[in-house]
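Retro notes - structure team

What went well: the batch runner handled both jobs without manual restarts.
What didn't: labels got mixed up in the shared folder, which is why I'm recording both outputs here explicitly, each with its sequence directly above its tokens.

Job 1
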Amino acid sequence: MRSRYEVLLRRIGRWWAVDVPRLALHTQCRTLEEAEDLARGLVAEAVGAHPDAIVLDMVVPELAPVLGSVSEARRRRAAAVAAEEQAIAAAVHELVGTLCLSQGDAGRLLSMSPREVAHFAPPRGSATAGTGHLTPVPAPSPPRPGAAPAPRPRPGPAQRPRRAISPARPSWAIPDDGAEGRG
């Protein structure tokens, strides 16, 4: 288990005063990088733990007004990123999983690359893909006596039936957009 300690830092001229109030430890150094390394080593030695097991909260009280607004903005940004991730995941699940759009089309609609969409898409063939139900595969029928053996299907990608494309509008146009009678 990792132990957490608050480290108070105070600027004194060109030096940083480093205090760990919980353990009554005090030292000083020139840089903040040194301050963290020094504090981690002091705390680890005082409690008899490995330095990697020590978590430090470095606090500079006199700079709190300056750093507080940045910290709050970062917290809000992290919350917005998490909300965006949830919204994208829900949209990809609906577009790819339920509506059966390709990852490329979903990516175009969401302004994302197909690779980014794939990160959120349910795995192909999973129970969550499509409608959530797996379609049963019918058992092959036994061969009829005297009939020639059926040709074996060639391995490769499954062929989808092609729809006729109307020359009056692009193939991706919505069918109920009122353009049926025009041409």
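Job 2
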Amino acid sequence: MPELIIQIGGRDFEVSCQAGEEPYLEAAARLLDNEAQVVSQEIGRMPEARMLLMAGLLLADKTVALEERARAAETELARLQARPAPVPERVEVPVVPGAVVDTLAELAARIEALADAMEESAGDALDGIRGKQPDGP
């Protein structure tokens, strides 16, 4: 079992932990040391047991506050998940009326017919200008 020396409130403590848990112990020790520093600055020098008790109580207070926030967040999440899904919003897409579509299709057909007639007339006119040449040599 690894043994570590941690410092809490300016005092060294030798502690043991399971192999691989050293980083977690060191992180926990830093949290406790931060609270012990606050207690020492506010109250001054005090017996080791009292300093550790006060630092532990400060950490416990923070933990309780975080647990309450987590519970409130879980309650809100559950409330939101239990709500029925919102009714889909109706979105209207502008639609061209059928009569307009029919009229546009008719106009397109007329334009195409006029273009075909113009091409045919232009072809006949060119033939007339060139004079019809007999087929073959």
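One thing worth noting from job 2: DSSP finds three helices and two strands in the chain.
We'll revisit the folder naming next retro.
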